[in-house]
Specification:
Blueprint lengths: L1 H13 L18 E6 L14 H5 L7 E3 L5 E3 L2 E8 L2 E6 L13 H14 L1 H7 L1 E8 L2 E6 L6 H4 L28 E7 L3 E6 L12 E6 L3 H9 L5 E3 L3 H8 L4 E16 L10 H10 L2 H8 L5 E2 L22 H10 L3 E3 L2 E4 L2 E2 L1 E7 L5 H14 L3 E7 L1 H9 L5 E6 L8 H8 L13 H10 L6 H17 L2 E14 L22
Parallel strand pairs: 1-10, 1-11, 17-18, 17-19
Antiparallel strand pairs: 2-3, 4-5, 5-7, 6-7, 8-9, 9-10, 11-20, 12-19, 12-20, 13-20, 14-15, 15-16
Helix pairs in contact: 1-9, 1-11, 3-4, 8-10, 9-11, 13-14, 14-15
């Protein structure tokens, strides 16, 4: 019964979002142009959507620090950095770097850019924790934090910290267009259609082989893959699991897969409006959902079952001492202790069945399938569900008002190679993105301390404490660790998945 249900979920999900069409005015035949079908619209004329990730993932703009393929910090626009006092970091900048407008990169330019980022994007203020910045010399910038802040170099790999030329902003300081130092420069934007970047021959690093990249916006998940098969594009992102399996067997295409610690999870409403304010019910839900069945039944095996928050592949990520496990007997005990009884296969209290309102959004490929599969498994265990799918913004409006029980979301805690990004921004009681009404003072204290500590035993122990609290108090249900999957025509050479999942790195790609 469960397999039939999940198969139905997967089939139904294929029908979602059929509003996309493929344009007929471009073919992927030019060997100097790469055409990519994207799930999200690449918006080069706005900083705020998707936290500026397009500027970084397309490499129009650079960050001071980058992440290598092991998610370790490496030089970007800064060649080296050192902590000169508990609260001050010194960054030595790369020589002979120019922006796309011909102006030189120096410490004053970086200072100006980071000041604009903090002023225009409130999220950046907590991410960077900056008290002041000083251009010590043309190629040396010092950043003073408000407190000891060991996480700063990692945070400066985040897409939000890309370095903009002054010409990116108007006289009032408002963003106009991205002018950076990356290997690609912004060329053209057609709303709801495509964004075009071209090779910057003044780039400080090795020049790309390609001359142009076209990011085609194709929101319909079926249409993106069909465009690849029709020869309209060279490269496709965010494929349906069924398409992954089909193209893997076709010699005309290449499929690239790599696990990341990006996580699909259910965020529990721990506030008074939800039965999940009771930690026993949160723990029970965690014990009732078979993540293996979600991956195999709903995702055709494209993903990794998530029994813990951080994926185990990455050694920088702390783990709790225990993992969740499928344990219906423990769940029954917890629900009984919370005052529920199972009658005719249904968990009820005061004559009413336990019902959870589950919200999610359709724009991310796997999201409907994961959400419906989780709901189906809870229904099978006697907990009723009311699943409602929205746009991201529509779901978020309800979540902010507390009108939900579980919101199924996706997050990439590996983007900076440091646990602070996710733990602080999502679960800290004062975090701007914490819409779960969950608060734990010991967790807050551990996370606040962890970001100040250098690598070593104290940092490890501090974050382990935070992770144990997150596990035991269970404000979330981890569901699936994302396996990043893209596909290309067989003519594309040199592509390699970056484990961040938000950095294409097309510099070494050719056709």
């Amino acid at each position: 019964m469960i397999k039939r249900t999940l198969l139905g979920v997967a089939i139904a999900a294929l029908a979602l979002g059929t509003f996309g069409t493929t344009s007929q005015d471009a073919k992927a035949s030019d060997d100097k142009t790469l055409i990519i079908g994207t799930m999200w619209e690449s918006q080069p004329l706005a900083m705020k959507p998707r936290r500026s990730r397009f500027f970084n993932e397309s490499e129009i703009l650079d960050t001071l620090v980058k992440l290598d393929y092991d998610l370790k910090p490496i030089p970007g626009l800064a060649t080296s950095w050192e902590r000169v006092s508990p609260t001050v970091w010194r960054f030595n900048l790369r020589e002979n770097v120019v922006f796309h407008d011909g102006t030189k990169l120096d410490a004053e330019a970086v200072k100006f850019s980071l000041e604009r980022v903090v002023a225009l994007l409130p999220y950046a203020a907590d991410l960077l924790n900056i008290k002041s910045m000083t251009a010590v010399s043309p190629l040396v910038l010092e950043i003073e934090n408000t407190e000891p802040y060991a996480a700063l170099p990692n945070q400066l790999t985040d897409a939000i910290t890309v370095v903009y030329a002054k010409s990116s902003f108007d006289e009032a300081g408002e963003f106009v267009k991205p002018v950076g130092t990356g290997p690609w420069k912004f060329e053209e934007y057609r709303k709801q259609d495509r964004t075009i970047v071209t090779r910057f021959d003044g780039y400080w690093g090795e020049k790309p082989a390609l001359e142009k990249i076209v990011y085609r916006y194709i929101p319909d998940h079926n249409s993106r893959t069909l465009a690849l098969e029709a020869g309209e594009i060279d490269f496709v992102t965010n494929m349906l699991p069924s398409d992954v399996k089909r193209l893997s067997k076709d010699a005309d295409f290449k499929v690239y897969e790599q696990p990341t610690s990006g996580l699909y999870y259910g965020a529990f409403n721990a506030g008074d409006k939800s039965p999940l304010s009771d930690v026993r019910i949160r723990r029970a839900v965690n014990a009732l959902v078979d993540r293996n069945l979600i991956v195999e039944g709903a995702l055709d095996g494209i993903g990794e079952p998530a029994w813990e928050f951080f994926a185990p592949e990455f050694d920088w990520a702390p783990q709790a001492d225990s993992k969740y496990s499928l344990n219906p007997e423990r769940a029954a005990s917890l629900l009984t202790d919370a005052g529920y009884e199972k009658t005719d296969g249904k968990w009820t209290k005061d004559g009413e069945q336990l019902t959870l309102r589950i919200l999610s959004y359709t724009s991310r490929t796997e999201m409907p399938m994961i959400t419906e599969a989780m709901a189906a498994l809870l229904n099978q265990q006697g907990i009723a569900t009311d699943v409602q799918m929205y746009t991201w913004g529509g779901m978020l409006d309800l979540v902010k008002r507390g009108e939900y029980d579980i919101s199924v979301v996706f997050w990439t805690p590996e983007m900076t190679g440091h646990p602070d990004l996710h733990l602080k921004s999502q679960f800290h009681s004062k975090a701007g993105l914490n819409y779960q009404f969950w608060e734990n003072t010991e967790f807050d204290a551990a996370v606040d301390m962890g970001r100040t500590l250098d690598a070593g035993a104290e940092k490890d122990a501090t974050y382990k404490k935070a992770m144990n609290i997150l596990h035991d108090d269970a404000p979330i249900i981890p569901l699936v660790h994302k396996v990043f999957v893209v596909a290309s025509t067989k003519d594309v050479k040199g592509y390699r998945i970056h484990p961040s999942g938000f950095f294409f790195d097309f510099k070494n790609v050719s056709k």
